[in-house]
Automatic annotation (TrEMBL):
This protein's record includes keyword Coiled coil: yes
Protein name, as recorded: Protein-tyrosine-phosphatase
InterPro entries the record matches: Prot-tyrosine_phosphatase-like, Tyr/Ser_Pase_IphP-type, Tyr_Pase_AS
Source organism, top-level taxon: Bacteria
Species for this entry: Vagococcus humatus
Length: 256
């Protein structure tokens, strides 16, 4: 059974387990979780992370600036691995400040994010480190970025793809972010509007960027196909993952 219930402050938190692969094997529950940033959580939430879900290691896909501004609650308590996917292009990130800065070009900016996540050297190196980390230990892991939707969403989509999960199920998990972030997004829009620093058009553009769309993930997969031929080609050529990686990933994350 899939783990991961609603948290008070930790947004978009869920277990990646419970989904079936193309050959009808189930992704293990309680092994890998995704979320938005675990920042300023209640003591009860922290306890659930470590004692209920037994999470021992955290991959943080945020930039150095994001981390300095809002430090991870578990950076000194658990095995903590910061991976700045956009290090090679500081002009692009899916942090709130950057979303606001590009609100006038919402759709184009979001598509660029998804393209850079599979082409930017720091993104490829970062995802390589992440996936190598998933198979080198038995620790239960959590990975996140700011909202847990773009950098995290691509990581989850690649994880499922490497395990041969259907596109339908990959997109279902990806789009669940819109449901899980609805309250947080509505609060952001309300507070932004109350600040009276944006017009209605900018507010509408911001709303566009706070949610995920199928065409964003479509663009990522299309970019992968154009440059690497397939997702497996991306894993081997883009992420430099050895052939043995796929069997190790299946062994660690699929029920048998």
């Amino acid at each position: 059974m899939e783990l991961g219930g609603k948290m008070e402050k930790l947004v978009n938190f869920r277990d990646l387990g419970g989904i079936y692969t193309g050959d009808n094997q189930q992704v293990k529950t309680g092994k890998l979780f995704r979320s938005g940033e675990p920042v300023q959580l209640s003591e009860e939430e922290k306890k659930r992370i470590t004692e209920t879900y037994h999470i021992e290691r955290i991959f943080d896909f945020r930039s150095e600036g994001e981390i300095n501004q809002r430090p991870n609650d578990f950076s000194k308590q658990l095995s903590y691995i910061p991976i700045d996917l956009f290090r090679d292009n500081q002009e692009i990130t899916s942090s709130f400040s950057q979303l606001m800065a590009h609100a006038d070009l919402a759709e184009e900016y979001m598509l660029r994010i998804y393209e850079e996540l599979v082409l930017l050297p720091s993104a490829k190196k970062g995802y390589q480190e992440f996936f190598e980390g998933l198979v080198d230990t038995q620790q239960v892991s959590l990975f996140h970025c700011f909202a847990g939707k773009d950098r995290t969403g691509v990581a989850a989509a690649l994880f499922f793809s490497f395990l041969d999960v259907s596109k339908e199920d990959i997109y279902r998990d990806y789009l669940k972010t819109n449901q899980d972030r609805r309250e947080a997004n509505e609060l952001i829009l309300k507070e932004t509007k109350e600040q009276d620093q944006v017009n209605e058009e900018q507010l509408k553009s911001l709303e566009t960027m706070l949610y995920v769309k199928p065409n964003y993930l479509d663009h990522m997969f299309t970019t992968v196909k154009e440059h690497y031929g397939s997702v497996l080609g991306f894993a081997k050529e883009g992420l430099n993952l050895p052939h043995s990686f796929f069997e190790e990933l299946r062994y660690k994350y699929l029920d048998r």
